Every structure is written in C-alpha cells, then in structure tokens.
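Researcher: Here's my situation. A collaborator sent me these components and asked whether they could plausibly form a single complex. I don't have experimental data yet, so a predicted model of the whole assembly would be a useful starting point for our discussion.
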Amino acid sequence: MQIDPLISLPLIFFLSLLIALFLYLVGRRVGARGEESANKVSPYACGEDLPARKLQVDVERFLVYAVYFMIFDIVAFILATSLVTPSVFPVVYAAVVLMAVLILLPLWRRGQNGGHARAT
Amino acid sequence: MVWEEIVAFLEILLFPGFLFLIALALFYEWVDRKFFAKLQNRYGPLYTGPSGILQPLADFVKLLSKEDIIPKAADKFMFNSAPIFLLSLPLLALFLIPIADLTAVISFEGDLIFLMFLFTLVAVTVFIAGWSSVSRFSSVGGVRAGFQLLGYEIPMCLVMIGPAIVAKTLSISEIAGWQASNTAWFIWLQPLGFAIFVLCLLAELEWIPFDIPEAETEIVAGWMTEFGGPKLALIRLGKDVELLLAASLITSLFLGGPNSLWMIPPIVFFLLKTTCAVILLTTLRALFARFRIDQMIAGAWKYLLPLAILQIIIVQLGLAR
C-alpha cells in the first residue's frame, strides 16, 4: 500500500515524535517523585565539588579533517546524483580531488610543523 | 477508499509499524546481549521470560519508572528534547527500508540520501545531548561523538552509493528489488564495500571498537551521563532501534532484502538476514578493544576513505555488476 511520500513522511515523523513523547510522559507519570536536594541537580563529578561550566573544546587538531570532510561530502553527493550514466566523468572528478588532497596534505603538514608548536 | 487508508494507518501503527519495530528492536537487543555473553563464556539474560527474552523490556520499564532528574545547569529545552529525537529519528528511518514487503512503507527516488541525512541528524543530536547537559563528561562525550561523525560519514556514504550505482537507482526498495530480480547480492559483488559498510555502521552505532563517545572506563557514560529515568529509557530504546536500522540496512543494501521464495512470506527472509547481520555486528563488538578518537579519525581518513573511493572506482569501471 503506497501512500504519497509527501504526506506519509511528515505524518510518520509526527507519529514517531508522538510515540516518543507518549512513552516519556508515561514514564514521568509512573515515575518516583523525589525530594529536591542541591547535590542531585549538580552535574556528576565522581563526588568532587566541581562547578558546572561549558568546556572549551580543542578543535585545532581536527580542523583539517573537517575541511576534508566538507570536500569529500560534495564529491560523494556528486557521485550519488550522477547515477544515470556510469560514465568516466565522475571518476575523473574523484581522481582530481584525490590528487589535490594528496598534493595539499604534505604541504599542510610542513606548514604546521614549521609554524607554531603542536598542541598535544 | 476510506478502508484502504485505514488499513494503511493500521499498517503504520502495528505491522510493519511502530509496535512491530519496537518489539523487534527489543528482541535484537536480547539477541545481541545473549550472543555477546556466549562469546564471553557467560550466560547473559537468563530469568525474565524464557531464556531472558523479556530482559530488554524489563530494563526499559524499570528505567521508565525512575525519577527524572534535570541538572540545574542544563539547557532545559535541548536537554529535554534530545532523547525524544534520538528515539523518533531512527524510527522514521526504519520506514524507508523494505521490511514486510518488497517496497517500503515510504519509498521514493532518493530516499537513500534522505537516510544518510537522518544518520547525520542522529549524530548531531547526540552532540547536542552531550553539550546541553553541562557537565565535563557529557561535553567531552558529545564532542567525541561529533568528531567520530567526521570520520565515518564519508566512507559510509560512498559505499552506500556503490549498490545504488549498479542498480541505477537511489531508492533502497529498488536496490533490494534489483538484487532480488538479478539474484545477485551485493555482498559478493562488492565485498570491499560491504566490509567498509559494516565498520562504518559500528562507528555510527557507537559500538566497540568505536564506542569512544560513551567510553565507560574513561568518561563515566560520556554524553549519556546526566540522563536518567525516562530519558535514559528513551535513549536506550533509540539505540536498540538504531541497531535494527543498521542491521536492516545491511539486509536491504547488501543481502538482497526481503525477497520471497514461493510460499514463504518475505518477512521471514527479512528476519533471518537481519538476525545474521546482528550476529555479525555482535561478533565484531566482542572481538575488539576501543580505539582512541584521534586513532579513529586518522584511521578512517587514511584507510577507510581510500578503500571506499577504490570501491567506487571499481564499480564505475563496470567490474562489480
């Protein structure tokens, strides 16, 4: 039985949200009610008394992977949408991108090593 | 006219709909725990129901009945809504996969790309869940989940496109149908793609060796640390539904989907193949130790991605038909 996906997709998403909400509300209804205490609502720190603060994340070492992620994501979706004729052009495109990455990578490394100190 | 729509609605709710999918997800959690235990020479769930088969349901109900504690420093809206999305997004994705019939309940040209989008959304929701529960362990776990997404997403997308290129369609139901009508499964047409896909699914499910975001021995429970009670119940059910999603994706993309063989209904074949996929994932989970996050990303970009590109080049050159 095939329903038009323009209708069925939002309908099923809405239904699954409803079911998740329903289960959650059943849980809150049935669940135990405790008393408030300062320790209960402080973040878990294995018993130590650390204040809750948002951490500063070190993204520097993974920034190069994020850039490559962006490039290859585009390559992947160009490949995906060129399905009609499995011709040589997407392969050429992928090969060019691969060569560009292979050429850029040692240059990037050399720049990183010669520049500021590496953060471990 | 109205009768057909009522039947369709009942199909969505019951079979193969929400009730069946959630029950199947709980069943596969039992399969996973029992097989994992057998590999480790212990019993696994034993007492609840015959051979412990009701244990996942018992865990779910127990967690639902616990107190729901919200940390004072947490971002209320995102903290409350993340578990709901973590359950509903995999449930939505399951409707794109043919389960009881040769075409899925939702099937359109391009639903493979929509499925990839849902996978990415789940990973981003994990990051939001970890970030909004303001705690050191949660933040580190959420950030590691985000980095892990950077690693496995591209090889997974590329090897999912491999079968799509051969079947000349971007619809999961039609890829399964192509395998059925040509009696050629992609597991032997594209074995490299299958291996990479299984590894990337392990990373997406956050299973050992890629359970870095919730590394128990390192950061307590990672991004799930501050969630408890009904929220944790929803998150765990979401993980089980993701396992069902991963196993049924392996079935439809590489193992031929639910094709029927004279009188046997397609659902039987679907269950058989998906159980084999779950057992394969569990075996890999039992065999390996955990990677570090930088090992994981570096390994994904140095090994998985070139192999995935090689697989695509092999497919494009016409060698994998």
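Model: Some features of this prediction you could bring to your collaborator: Chain A has a mean pLDDT of 76. The CA atoms of residues 33 and 82 of chain A lie 57 Å apart.
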